[in-house]
Amino acid sequence: MHEQHRLYRLPELLSFFARTRQFGVLDRIANALSPDQALAALYDALRVFRSSCLSESPDKKCPNNAEELVEKARYEVEKITELLLDSHRAEEGLRLARTAAILALGR
Rounded distance, CA 53 to CA 63, Å? Predict the structure, then answer.
């Protein structure tokens, strides 16, 4: 039996894209058909979040705790990446990435 993975911080981080109506970022994560697509979508989401929220003049819709949020989401990002890179557990990684995108829309 596989260990249960819970997502808290990554959906909170990704909810920035729902607040700013950048649904395409979430769509790419939710609709990824392969581990490579999911990894690329997660990479792009984290890159955009960092450039929008950890810059000298952050977007007004960024969370106040953006830097802390990136740090705290690290474990969840690492776990999803680990699953996506494991050919026997990649489907679980895809489901977890989709779940993060869905939860982000609900925040």
Answer: 8
Please name the amino acid found at residue 86: D
Whether 29 contacts 42, CB under 8 Å: yes
Report the CATH number that the domain containing residue 76 is assigned in CATH: 1.20.120
Please report whether residue 95 resides in a domain.
yes
Number of structural domains found in the chain: 1
Q: Which pLDDT tens digit goes with each residue over 50-88?
A: 999 998 889 899 999 999 999 999 999 999 999 999 999
Residue by residue, what is the 3-state secondary structure of the chain? CCCCCCCCHHHHHHHHHHHCCCHHHHHHHHCCCCHHHHHHHHHHHHHHHHHHHCCCCCCCCCCCCHHHHHHHHHHHHHHHHHHHHCCCCHHHHHHHHHHHHHHHHCC
Q: For residues 56 and 38, what is the distance between their CA atoms, to the nearest angstrom?
A: 29
Cβ-Cβ contacts under 8 Å for 88 (sequence gap 6 or more): none
* pTM for this entry: 0.89
